[in-house]
Amino acid sequence: MNRRNFLKSALVSSGGLLNAQNRKPNIIVILADDLGYGDLGCYGSQIATPNLDRMATEGMRFEDFYSANSVCSPARASLMTGRYAARFGLPGVLLPGASRGIPESEVTLAQLLHDAGYVTGCVGKWHMGNLPRFMPNARGFDEYFGVPYSNDMDPLPLFHNRDLIESETSNDLLTQRFTQAAVDFIERSKAQPFFLYLAHCAPHIPIGVSPAFAGKSGLGDYGDAVQELDWSVGRVLAALADNGLDDNTIVIFSSDNGPWYQGSPGRLRGRKGESYEGGMRVPMIARMPGRIPAGTLAAGMASHLDLLPTLTTMAGAGQPWQPLDGVDITSLLEARDIPVERDVFLFLDGYDVQCARFGNFKLHLSRCDEPPWLDGIPEGRTNLPLERPELYDVGRDPSESYELGLQKPLMVARIKARVEDLIRTFPLEVRNAWRDTQFRRTRWTPTGAYPSKVKP
Protein backbone atom coordinates (compact mmCIF):
# COMPACT_ATOMS: atom_id res chain seq x y z
CA MET A 1 0.00 0.00 0.00
CA ASN A 2 1.45 3.38 -0.98
CA ARG A 3 1.54 6.37 1.38
CA ARG A 4 -1.52 8.07 -0.14
CA ASN A 5 -3.72 4.97 0.15
CA PHE A 6 -2.44 4.30 3.66
CA LEU A 7 -3.36 7.81 4.78
CA LYS A 8 -6.76 7.55 3.12
CA SER A 9 -7.42 4.22 4.84
CA ALA A 10 -6.29 5.62 8.18
CA LEU A 11 -8.55 8.65 7.82
CA VAL A 12 -11.56 6.50 6.95
CA SER A 13 -10.88 4.20 9.89
CA SER A 14 -10.32 7.03 12.35
CA GLY A 15 -13.34 8.84 10.98
CA GLY A 16 -15.48 5.79 11.57
CA LEU A 17 -14.14 5.51 15.13
CA LEU A 18 -14.81 9.21 15.69
CA ASN A 19 -18.36 8.80 14.35
CA ALA A 20 -19.10 5.85 16.58
CA GLN A 21 -17.76 7.50 19.73
CA ASN A 22 -18.35 11.23 19.49
CA ARG A 23 -20.82 12.13 16.79
CA LYS A 24 -24.54 12.19 16.48
CA PRO A 25 -25.80 9.56 14.07
CA ASN A 26 -26.20 10.47 10.44
CA ILE A 27 -29.74 9.89 9.16
CA ILE A 28 -30.85 8.82 5.69
CA VAL A 29 -34.51 8.33 4.78
CA ILE A 30 -35.06 6.77 1.34
CA LEU A 31 -38.64 6.88 0.09
CA ALA A 32 -39.95 5.09 -3.00
CA ASP A 33 -43.07 6.31 -4.81
CA ASP A 34 -46.02 3.88 -5.08
CA LEU A 35 -43.86 0.84 -4.28
CA GLY A 36 -46.10 -2.02 -3.15
CA TYR A 37 -45.79 -4.16 -0.04
CA GLY A 38 -45.03 -7.17 -2.25
CA ASP A 39 -42.50 -5.54 -4.60
CA LEU A 40 -39.19 -6.45 -2.90
CA GLY A 41 -37.45 -9.80 -2.79
CA CYS A 42 -37.40 -9.83 1.01
CA TYR A 43 -41.20 -9.36 0.93
CA GLY A 44 -41.75 -12.24 -1.50
CA SER A 45 -41.38 -10.57 -4.90
CA GLN A 46 -39.83 -12.23 -7.94
CA ILE A 47 -38.10 -8.93 -8.73
CA ALA A 48 -34.42 -9.20 -7.80
CA THR A 49 -33.57 -6.64 -5.08
CA PRO A 50 -30.24 -7.87 -3.65
CA ASN A 51 -29.23 -4.57 -2.02
CA LEU A 52 -32.50 -4.09 -0.16
CA ASP A 53 -32.52 -7.78 0.77
CA ARG A 54 -29.00 -7.36 2.19
CA MET A 55 -30.10 -4.24 4.02
CA ALA A 56 -32.89 -6.28 5.65
CA THR A 57 -30.42 -9.04 6.54
CA GLU A 58 -28.13 -6.48 8.16
CA GLY A 59 -30.95 -4.62 9.89
CA MET A 60 -34.64 -4.84 10.76
CA ARG A 61 -37.57 -5.55 8.46
CA PHE A 62 -41.11 -4.53 9.32
CA GLU A 63 -44.13 -6.57 8.28
CA ASP A 64 -46.57 -4.25 10.01
CA PHE A 65 -45.67 -0.72 8.92
CA TYR A 66 -47.98 1.98 7.59
CA SER A 67 -47.90 5.13 5.59
CA ALA A 68 -50.01 7.86 7.16
CA ASN A 69 -52.14 8.17 4.01
CA SER A 70 -52.90 6.23 0.84
CA VAL A 71 -51.85 9.04 -1.54
CA CYS A 72 -48.60 10.95 -1.81
CA SER A 73 -48.88 14.59 -0.66
CA PRO A 74 -50.54 13.94 2.71
CA ALA A 75 -48.42 10.80 3.23
CA ARG A 76 -45.17 12.73 2.73
CA ALA A 77 -46.32 15.70 4.79
CA SER A 78 -47.18 13.38 7.68
CA LEU A 79 -43.75 11.77 7.50
CA MET A 80 -42.08 15.17 7.55
CA THR A 81 -44.12 16.49 10.51
CA GLY A 82 -45.12 13.45 12.61
CA ARG A 83 -48.74 14.64 12.36
CA TYR A 84 -51.75 13.68 10.26
CA ALA A 85 -51.79 16.02 7.26
CA ALA A 86 -55.50 16.65 7.75
CA ARG A 87 -54.54 18.55 10.90
CA PHE A 88 -52.91 21.28 8.81
CA GLY A 89 -54.95 21.44 5.63
CA LEU A 90 -53.35 18.89 3.24
CA PRO A 91 -56.11 16.31 2.73
CA GLY A 92 -55.28 15.23 -0.83
CA VAL A 93 -52.84 15.28 -3.74
CA LEU A 94 -51.42 18.72 -4.56
CA LEU A 95 -51.48 19.75 -8.21
CA PRO A 96 -48.94 22.07 -9.90
CA GLY A 97 -49.73 25.64 -8.96
CA ALA A 98 -51.56 24.66 -5.77
CA SER A 99 -51.68 27.49 -3.25
CA ARG A 100 -51.07 25.16 -0.32
CA GLY A 101 -48.22 23.23 1.23
CA ILE A 102 -46.94 22.35 4.70
CA PRO A 103 -47.80 25.58 6.55
CA GLU A 104 -45.05 27.63 8.16
CA SER A 105 -46.74 26.93 11.50
CA GLU A 106 -45.76 23.25 11.21
CA VAL A 107 -42.27 22.18 12.28
CA THR A 108 -40.53 19.71 9.98
CA LEU A 109 -38.06 16.94 10.71
CA ALA A 110 -35.47 18.82 8.66
CA GLN A 111 -35.90 21.99 10.73
CA LEU A 112 -35.47 20.12 14.01
CA LEU A 113 -32.34 18.33 12.82
CA HIS A 114 -30.91 21.51 11.29
CA ASP A 115 -31.37 23.27 14.62
CA ALA A 116 -29.55 20.36 16.30
CA GLY A 117 -26.46 20.93 14.16
CA TYR A 118 -27.19 18.68 11.17
CA VAL A 119 -26.52 19.63 7.57
CA THR A 120 -29.72 18.74 5.74
CA GLY A 121 -30.24 17.67 2.13
CA CYS A 122 -33.34 16.84 0.11
CA VAL A 123 -32.94 14.95 -3.15
CA GLY A 124 -35.83 13.88 -5.40
CA LYS A 125 -39.57 14.36 -5.34
CA TRP A 126 -40.96 16.95 -2.91
CA HIS A 127 -44.74 17.27 -3.50
CA MET A 128 -45.50 19.10 -0.27
CA GLY A 129 -46.15 22.50 -1.87
CA ASN A 130 -44.41 24.06 -4.87
CA LEU A 131 -44.67 27.77 -4.05
CA PRO A 132 -41.31 29.18 -2.84
CA ARG A 133 -42.40 29.39 0.80
CA PHE A 134 -43.28 25.67 0.80
CA MET A 135 -40.24 24.30 -1.04
CA PRO A 136 -37.43 22.38 0.73
CA ASN A 137 -35.02 25.31 1.20
CA ALA A 138 -37.76 27.14 3.11
CA ARG A 139 -38.66 24.10 5.23
CA GLY A 140 -35.37 23.23 6.89
CA PHE A 141 -33.18 21.86 4.09
CA ASP A 142 -29.80 23.40 3.35
CA GLU A 143 -29.65 21.77 -0.09
CA TYR A 144 -32.23 20.62 -2.59
CA PHE A 145 -31.98 18.83 -5.93
CA GLY A 146 -35.18 17.48 -7.39
CA VAL A 147 -38.65 17.90 -8.83
CA PRO A 148 -41.47 19.70 -7.02
CA TYR A 149 -44.21 17.11 -7.57
CA SER A 150 -45.09 13.77 -9.22
CA ASN A 151 -43.54 12.63 -12.48
CA ASP A 152 -46.98 12.33 -14.10
CA MET A 153 -47.55 16.08 -13.81
CA ASP A 154 -46.68 18.42 -16.66
CA PRO A 155 -44.32 20.16 -17.04
CA LEU A 156 -41.79 18.38 -14.82
CA PRO A 157 -39.11 20.93 -13.86
CA LEU A 158 -35.83 20.21 -12.10
CA PHE A 159 -34.54 22.49 -9.33
CA HIS A 160 -31.19 22.96 -7.64
CA ASN A 161 -31.94 24.77 -4.40
CA ARG A 162 -34.22 27.66 -5.43
CA ASP A 163 -32.97 27.78 -9.02
CA LEU A 164 -34.81 26.22 -11.94
CA ILE A 165 -32.14 24.37 -13.91
CA GLU A 166 -34.36 22.46 -16.37
CA SER A 167 -37.90 23.45 -17.32
CA GLU A 168 -38.61 19.89 -18.50
CA THR A 169 -36.45 17.02 -17.29
CA SER A 170 -36.15 13.40 -18.47
CA ASN A 171 -38.17 10.99 -16.34
CA ASP A 172 -36.01 8.06 -17.50
CA LEU A 173 -32.87 9.53 -15.93
CA LEU A 174 -34.25 10.67 -12.58
CA THR A 175 -33.20 7.64 -10.51
CA GLN A 176 -29.64 7.89 -11.84
CA ARG A 177 -29.42 11.65 -11.26
CA PHE A 178 -30.99 11.53 -7.81
CA THR A 179 -28.61 8.74 -6.79
CA GLN A 180 -25.55 10.68 -7.89
CA ALA A 181 -26.78 13.79 -6.09
CA ALA A 182 -27.31 11.73 -2.92
CA VAL A 183 -23.80 10.23 -3.08
CA ASP A 184 -22.30 13.70 -3.71
CA PHE A 185 -24.18 15.06 -0.67
CA ILE A 186 -22.83 12.26 1.55
CA GLU A 187 -19.26 12.91 0.44
CA ARG A 188 -19.58 16.68 0.94
CA SER A 189 -21.24 16.36 4.33
CA LYS A 190 -19.25 13.58 5.99
CA ALA A 191 -17.34 15.93 8.31
CA GLN A 192 -20.48 16.68 10.33
CA PRO A 193 -23.77 14.97 11.17
CA PHE A 194 -26.12 15.01 8.21
CA PHE A 195 -29.73 14.23 7.32
CA LEU A 196 -30.48 13.10 3.78
CA TYR A 197 -34.03 12.72 2.55
CA LEU A 198 -33.85 10.82 -0.76
CA ALA A 199 -37.33 10.65 -2.30
CA HIS A 200 -37.38 8.78 -5.61
CA CYS A 201 -40.05 9.16 -8.29
CA ALA A 202 -39.75 5.44 -9.10
CA PRO A 203 -41.75 3.33 -9.58
CA HIS A 204 -44.64 5.82 -9.98
CA ILE A 205 -46.17 5.89 -13.47
CA PRO A 206 -45.17 6.87 -16.09
CA ILE A 207 -42.38 4.36 -15.47
CA GLY A 208 -38.93 5.87 -15.89
CA VAL A 209 -35.98 3.54 -16.48
CA SER A 210 -32.47 4.44 -17.63
CA PRO A 211 -30.87 2.61 -20.58
CA ALA A 212 -28.65 0.74 -18.12
CA PHE A 213 -31.70 -1.02 -16.60
CA ALA A 214 -34.17 -1.18 -19.49
CA GLY A 215 -35.15 -4.83 -19.97
CA LYS A 216 -32.81 -6.01 -17.20
CA SER A 217 -35.39 -7.56 -14.88
CA GLY A 218 -37.21 -9.66 -17.45
CA LEU A 219 -40.39 -8.57 -15.66
CA GLY A 220 -41.34 -5.51 -17.68
CA ASP A 221 -40.64 -1.84 -17.12
CA TYR A 222 -41.99 -1.92 -13.57
CA GLY A 223 -39.54 -4.66 -12.59
CA ASP A 224 -36.76 -2.70 -14.30
CA ALA A 225 -37.64 0.43 -12.29
CA VAL A 226 -37.63 -1.50 -9.00
CA GLN A 227 -34.25 -3.04 -9.83
CA GLU A 228 -32.84 0.41 -10.57
CA LEU A 229 -34.23 1.62 -7.27
CA ASP A 230 -32.46 -1.28 -5.56
CA TRP A 231 -29.23 -0.34 -7.36
CA SER A 232 -29.62 3.19 -6.00
CA VAL A 233 -29.86 1.90 -2.42
CA GLY A 234 -26.71 -0.12 -3.03
CA ARG A 235 -24.87 2.99 -4.21
CA VAL A 236 -25.91 4.91 -1.08
CA LEU A 237 -24.80 2.09 1.22
CA ALA A 238 -21.49 1.83 -0.63
CA ALA A 239 -20.93 5.58 -0.24
CA LEU A 240 -21.37 5.23 3.52
CA ALA A 241 -18.87 2.37 3.69
CA ASP A 242 -16.35 4.16 1.45
CA ASN A 243 -16.44 7.23 3.69
CA GLY A 244 -16.22 5.42 7.03
CA LEU A 245 -19.81 6.31 7.96
CA ASP A 246 -21.40 2.88 7.93
CA ASP A 247 -21.56 2.24 11.68
CA ASN A 248 -22.88 5.67 12.58
CA THR A 249 -25.65 6.09 10.02
CA ILE A 250 -29.24 4.97 10.36
CA VAL A 251 -30.75 4.22 6.96
CA ILE A 252 -34.52 3.94 6.56
CA PHE A 253 -36.15 2.61 3.39
CA SER A 254 -39.90 2.70 2.77
CA SER A 255 -42.64 3.72 0.31
CA ASP A 256 -45.05 6.65 0.48
CA ASN A 257 -48.14 4.43 -0.01
CA GLY A 258 -49.29 1.24 -1.68
CA PRO A 259 -49.01 0.39 -5.39
CA TRP A 260 -51.11 2.09 -8.02
CA TYR A 261 -51.68 0.08 -11.22
CA GLN A 262 -48.57 -2.06 -11.80
CA GLY A 263 -47.08 -2.89 -8.41
CA SER A 264 -48.01 -5.68 -6.03
CA PRO A 265 -49.65 -5.35 -2.60
CA GLY A 266 -48.52 -8.92 -1.90
CA ARG A 267 -50.99 -10.75 0.31
CA LEU A 268 -52.81 -7.53 1.18
CA ARG A 269 -56.21 -6.36 -0.03
CA GLY A 270 -56.51 -3.04 -1.84
CA ARG A 271 -54.21 -0.56 -3.56
CA LYS A 272 -53.21 3.11 -3.56
CA GLY A 273 -56.11 5.42 -2.77
CA GLU A 274 -57.93 2.83 -0.67
CA SER A 275 -58.14 2.35 3.08
CA TYR A 276 -57.64 -1.40 2.87
CA GLU A 277 -54.21 -2.63 3.99
CA GLY A 278 -52.79 -2.67 0.46
CA GLY A 279 -53.26 1.08 0.19
CA MET A 280 -51.34 2.00 3.32
CA ARG A 281 -49.25 -0.93 4.61
CA VAL A 282 -45.81 -0.50 3.03
CA PRO A 283 -42.30 -2.01 3.10
CA MET A 284 -40.01 -0.68 5.80
CA ILE A 285 -36.37 -1.60 6.41
CA ALA A 286 -34.10 0.04 8.99
CA ARG A 287 -30.34 -0.48 9.26
CA MET A 288 -27.70 0.79 11.66
CA PRO A 289 -24.92 -1.69 12.47
CA GLY A 290 -24.36 -2.06 16.20
CA ARG A 291 -27.61 -0.38 17.18
CA ILE A 292 -30.36 -2.06 15.15
CA PRO A 293 -29.91 -5.84 15.52
CA ALA A 294 -29.13 -7.59 12.26
CA GLY A 295 -31.58 -10.00 10.68
CA THR A 296 -34.49 -9.06 12.93
CA LEU A 297 -38.20 -8.80 12.27
CA ALA A 298 -39.89 -5.85 13.98
CA ALA A 299 -41.98 -6.98 16.92
CA GLY A 300 -44.80 -4.48 16.48
CA MET A 301 -46.69 -2.01 14.37
CA ALA A 302 -45.29 1.39 13.39
CA SER A 303 -45.86 4.13 10.83
CA HIS A 304 -44.24 7.07 9.05
CA LEU A 305 -45.73 9.27 11.76
CA ASP A 306 -43.24 7.69 14.17
CA LEU A 307 -40.11 8.69 12.25
CA LEU A 308 -39.95 12.29 13.45
CA PRO A 309 -40.18 11.55 17.19
CA THR A 310 -37.85 8.55 16.82
CA LEU A 311 -35.14 10.15 14.70
CA THR A 312 -35.10 13.38 16.71
CA THR A 313 -34.69 11.32 19.89
CA MET A 314 -31.80 9.38 18.37
CA ALA A 315 -30.23 12.66 17.20
CA GLY A 316 -30.69 14.47 20.50
CA ALA A 317 -32.78 17.11 18.74
CA GLY A 318 -35.73 19.11 20.02
CA GLN A 319 -39.41 18.34 19.53
CA PRO A 320 -42.14 20.42 17.87
CA TRP A 321 -44.41 22.52 20.03
CA GLN A 322 -47.47 20.89 18.46
CA PRO A 323 -48.72 17.54 19.82
CA LEU A 324 -47.50 14.67 17.65
CA ASP A 325 -49.53 11.77 16.31
CA GLY A 326 -46.42 9.60 15.98
CA VAL A 327 -44.60 7.97 18.89
CA ASP A 328 -40.96 7.18 19.63
CA ILE A 329 -40.19 3.64 18.43
CA THR A 330 -36.49 3.61 19.37
CA SER A 331 -37.05 0.63 21.67
CA LEU A 332 -38.71 -1.24 18.80
CA LEU A 333 -35.80 -0.50 16.45
CA GLU A 334 -33.32 -1.66 19.07
CA ALA A 335 -35.39 -4.81 19.78
CA ARG A 336 -35.69 -3.93 23.46
CA ASP A 337 -38.52 -5.52 25.40
CA ILE A 338 -40.29 -2.22 26.07
CA PRO A 339 -43.86 -1.89 24.76
CA VAL A 340 -44.65 1.09 22.51
CA GLU A 341 -47.81 2.79 23.70
CA ARG A 342 -49.97 4.51 21.08
CA ASP A 343 -53.52 5.70 20.54
CA VAL A 344 -55.66 4.41 17.71
CA PHE A 345 -54.06 4.78 14.29
CA LEU A 346 -56.40 6.49 11.83
CA PHE A 347 -56.89 5.78 8.12
CA LEU A 348 -57.91 9.14 6.66
CA ASP A 349 -59.29 9.71 3.16
CA GLY A 350 -59.26 13.46 2.65
CA TYR A 351 -60.78 14.81 5.85
CA ASP A 352 -62.81 11.64 6.40
CA VAL A 353 -61.83 9.08 9.02
CA GLN A 354 -62.61 5.74 7.38
CA CYS A 355 -60.81 3.17 9.53
CA ALA A 356 -58.93 2.90 12.79
CA ARG A 357 -56.44 0.36 14.06
CA PHE A 358 -56.08 -0.47 17.75
CA GLY A 359 -53.72 -3.27 18.70
CA ASN A 360 -54.15 -5.98 16.09
CA PHE A 361 -57.71 -4.95 15.25
CA LYS A 362 -58.81 -2.64 12.45
CA LEU A 363 -62.30 -1.19 12.26
CA HIS A 364 -63.74 0.01 8.93
CA LEU A 365 -66.35 2.73 9.49
CA SER A 366 -66.95 4.32 6.07
CA ARG A 367 -65.73 4.55 2.45
CA CYS A 368 -65.75 7.39 -0.08
CA ASP A 369 -67.42 6.96 -3.45
CA GLU A 370 -64.50 8.61 -5.30
CA PRO A 371 -60.71 8.44 -4.75
CA PRO A 372 -58.85 11.40 -3.19
CA TRP A 373 -56.74 12.29 -6.21
CA LEU A 374 -57.45 16.01 -6.36
CA ASP A 375 -56.27 18.99 -4.34
CA GLY A 376 -58.86 19.29 -1.61
CA ILE A 377 -62.25 17.57 -1.67
CA PRO A 378 -63.97 17.47 -5.07
CA GLU A 379 -67.52 18.77 -5.22
CA GLY A 380 -70.02 15.94 -4.98
CA ARG A 381 -67.60 13.46 -3.37
CA THR A 382 -69.36 11.67 -0.54
CA ASN A 383 -68.11 9.60 2.36
CA LEU A 384 -70.57 6.76 2.82
CA PRO A 385 -71.04 5.11 6.20
CA LEU A 386 -71.00 1.34 6.33
CA GLU A 387 -74.32 -0.10 7.39
CA ARG A 388 -72.41 -2.04 10.02
CA PRO A 389 -68.75 -1.38 10.92
CA GLU A 390 -66.38 -4.12 9.75
CA LEU A 391 -63.79 -5.48 12.20
CA TYR A 392 -60.68 -7.40 11.11
CA ASP A 393 -57.81 -8.91 13.06
CA VAL A 394 -55.13 -7.64 10.67
CA GLY A 395 -52.40 -9.13 12.85
CA ARG A 396 -53.60 -12.62 11.86
CA ASP A 397 -55.62 -11.68 8.79
CA PRO A 398 -53.76 -8.93 6.87
CA SER A 399 -55.81 -9.68 3.75
CA GLU A 400 -58.94 -8.53 5.62
CA SER A 401 -60.86 -11.64 4.62
CA TYR A 402 -62.64 -12.61 7.85
CA GLU A 403 -64.99 -10.03 9.34
CA LEU A 404 -65.39 -10.27 13.14
CA GLY A 405 -67.74 -7.43 14.08
CA LEU A 406 -70.65 -9.60 15.19
CA GLN A 407 -68.32 -11.80 17.22
CA LYS A 408 -66.57 -8.93 19.01
CA PRO A 409 -69.10 -6.11 19.58
CA LEU A 410 -67.21 -4.80 22.62
CA MET A 411 -64.04 -4.30 20.55
CA VAL A 412 -66.08 -2.47 17.89
CA ALA A 413 -67.53 -0.16 20.54
CA ARG A 414 -64.14 0.36 22.21
CA ILE A 415 -62.38 1.37 18.99
CA LYS A 416 -65.20 3.65 17.88
CA ALA A 417 -65.18 5.41 21.26
CA ARG A 418 -61.43 6.02 20.99
CA VAL A 419 -61.88 7.34 17.46
CA GLU A 420 -64.51 9.81 18.62
CA ASP A 421 -62.25 11.01 21.43
CA LEU A 422 -59.34 11.54 19.04
CA ILE A 423 -61.46 13.33 16.41
CA ARG A 424 -62.25 16.01 18.99
CA THR A 425 -58.58 17.06 18.80
CA PHE A 426 -58.72 17.67 15.03
CA PRO A 427 -59.61 20.88 13.19
CA LEU A 428 -63.16 21.75 12.20
CA GLU A 429 -62.91 20.16 8.73
CA VAL A 430 -62.33 16.69 10.20
CA ARG A 431 -64.94 17.11 12.93
CA ASN A 432 -67.53 18.27 10.40
CA ALA A 433 -66.69 15.42 8.03
CA TRP A 434 -67.22 12.94 10.85
CA ARG A 435 -70.51 14.61 11.81
CA ASP A 436 -71.71 14.53 8.20
CA THR A 437 -70.89 10.84 7.88
CA GLN A 438 -72.78 10.05 11.07
CA PHE A 439 -75.74 12.06 9.77
CA ARG A 440 -75.79 10.00 6.59
CA ARG A 441 -75.99 6.86 8.71
CA THR A 442 -79.46 7.97 9.85
CA ARG A 443 -80.62 8.21 6.22
CA TRP A 444 -80.38 4.51 5.43
CA THR A 445 -83.68 3.02 4.23
CA PRO A 446 -85.21 0.05 6.11
CA THR A 447 -83.79 -2.26 3.42
CA GLY A 448 -80.28 -0.92 3.94
CA ALA A 449 -80.10 0.84 0.57
CA TYR A 450 -78.57 4.29 0.56
CA PRO A 451 -81.14 6.52 -1.21
CA SER A 452 -78.93 9.36 -2.46
CA LYS A 453 -75.98 11.60 -1.67
CA VAL A 454 -77.80 13.51 1.03
CA LYS A 455 -75.85 16.25 2.79
CA PRO A 456 -76.98 18.11 5.92
Would you mind describing this structure in some detail?
The chain has 456 residues and is an alpha/beta fold. It has two domains: 22-333, 3-Layer(aba) Sandwich (Alkaline Phosphatase, subunit A), CATH 3.40.720; 345-441, Arylsulfatase, C-terminal domain, CATH 3.30.1120. 29% of the residues lie in helices and 18% in strands. The protein is built from eleven helices and 16 strands. The chain has helices at 3-22, 50-57, 72-81, 109-115, 174-189, 220-242, 277-280, 307-315, 330-333, 409-423, 428-441; strands spanning 26-32, 60-62, 65-66, 119-125, 143-147, 158-160, 163-166, 194-199, 249-255, 284-287, 296-297, 302-303, 345-349, 352-358, 361-368, 383-393. It has a ten-stranded mixed beta sheet, sandwiched between helices. Strands 13-14-15-16 form a four-stranded antiparallel beta sheet, with helices on one face. Strands 3-12 form a two-stranded parallel ribbon. The chain starts with a helix and ends in a 15-residue tail after the last helix. The model is unreliable at 1-21 and 444-456 (pLDDT under 50).
Mean pLDDT: 91
Low-confidence stretches: 1-21, 444-456
Biggest β-sheet: count, sense, barrel? 10 strands, mixed
CATH superfamily of the largest domain: Alkaline Phosphatase, subunit A
